[in-house]
Amino acid sequence: xxxxxxxTGCLAEAAYYIESQGEAVIIDPLRETEPYLERAxxxxxKIKYVLETHFHADFVxxxxxxxxxxxxxxxxxxxxxxxFAAHVAEDNEILHVxxxxxxxxxxxxxxxxxxxxxxxxxQGKEVAIFTGDTLFLGDVGRPDLAIKQGELTREDLAGLxxxxxxxxxxxxxxxxxxxxxxxxxxxxxxxxSKDTWDYLGDQKKANYALRADMTKAEFxxxxxxxxxxxxxxxxxxxxxxxxxxxxxxxxxERGTQPLSVxxxxxxxxxxxxxxxxxxxxxxxxxxxIPGSIFIGIDDSFAMWVGALIVxxxxxxxxxxxxxxxxxxxxxxxxxxxxxxxxxxxxxxAAWAAAGEAVDTLEECTAAEFAKxxxxxxxxxxxxxxxxxxxxxxxxxxxxxxxxxxxxxMNQLERNTPYYLHCAGGYRSVIAASILKARGFQQLVxxxxxxxxxxxxxxxxxxxxDQLTEL
Length: 470
Description:
The protein is α/β, with parallel strands linked by helices. The protein has 3 domains: 2-237, Ribonuclease Z/Hydroxyacylglutathione hydrolase-like (Metallo-beta-lactamase, Chain A); 247-353, Rhodanese-like domain (Oxidized Rhodanese, domain 1, 3-Layer(aba) Sandwich); 362-453, Rhodanese-like domain (Oxidized Rhodanese, domain 1). Helix content is 30%, strand content 20%. The protein has helices at 34-43, 63-70, 154-169, 200-206, 216-224, 234-243, 248-255, 261-270, 281-286, 301-308, 325-333, 347-353, 366-372, 386-391, 405-408, 426-437, 449-453; strands at residues 2-8, 13-20, 23-27, 46-51, 73-76, 87-88, 94-97, 100-106, 115-120, 126-132, 177-180, 198-199, 258-259, 274-277, 293-294, 316-319, 340-344, 362-364, 379-382, 398-399, 418-421, 443-446. The strands form 4 sheets. It has a 6-stranded mixed β-sheet, with helices on one face. α3 (154-169) crosses α5 and α7 (248-255) crosses α11 (325-333). The radius of gyration is 24 Å and the shape is globular.
């Protein structure tokens, strides 16, 4: 038996490959099929099942393309109602994969169809549980992300989650390995561990949600407190996973069309497209296409695309480093943005060489900023999340979270100069690019973000640990 966790850091998502005696099963795959097909081919194994723990909200799963390419059966837990061919398993149903078995444990709470899969080895010993978004390390799944289910409230779902944990998961052996669907950085939970697996016995000691003395009322209050509005793309991704979607192969073919500067400009105007610049942030700051938005491919690209671009059908043109065009289209499609219509052939260099207009972003170091601040004329925007800001911030800084920049932009004055910072510099460049595209010109990005600012003599608030990282 082989169990492999396939972790994708930019989405903080874990998929799983399980193999036994020439048969394989994939749990919660990302949209691209290559990682799973390549593993099965190398092992000479046939993918028998694609197991989904629930209708995911934070990414588009690869279940449909995998089933089309391999003939595998898509499996959901009880109550799921997919709009495509799939096996909706019964609670406690046993699936056979080679010489091992996987038991379906219905664990509603995060969503109604949420299911945990219990793996037993060749001798029938309980080895691991694949918990999806039901149980994380140090946390549990949010009860406010489900596709609308009648009159159920998030408090109702939290109550179901309490019962699922106590009745289905906590009675299992302490030696069982917990393989969750996400790790730290995901918006599907409030405060997850940076680890990606643990023993259930250790989680019973460390995870607040598994406290034996916790009452149901206490649990419901705890898991529903400190939640912030989820990213706007979450419900749309959940619907795509439930209703079906276009093949990624077709999305890639359409999105990886090279366009000359002239064709790029024409498509931009004709399609009312959004231009995303995916290069490194320091390179972007030195020169970019006026009106383009920076979201660098080397950080949490898909998460920020989803948080900031409201319409999944928005036509997208992009600028990328040569050789990374397919990666950009794939990572857009991971979160449901399937309408890439091409990229700038030759990249930004081709644009500049053609004599087209170029914009830049003014930047300063933390040390340079410390010499200028505080001053009455300086307005400092901290674009980190509220939880980060509340943990610690520079005295006088105003919290202006990137997550909600489009909604709150009207609070700013276009003729006012602003300095911006985040934790390390990535998000503040995104924020500055969005503001520039909307007519704000007096912007300065502080390089290195709060990590660099904290090393200066600037006055900071007292550090206060937060109960949530949302």
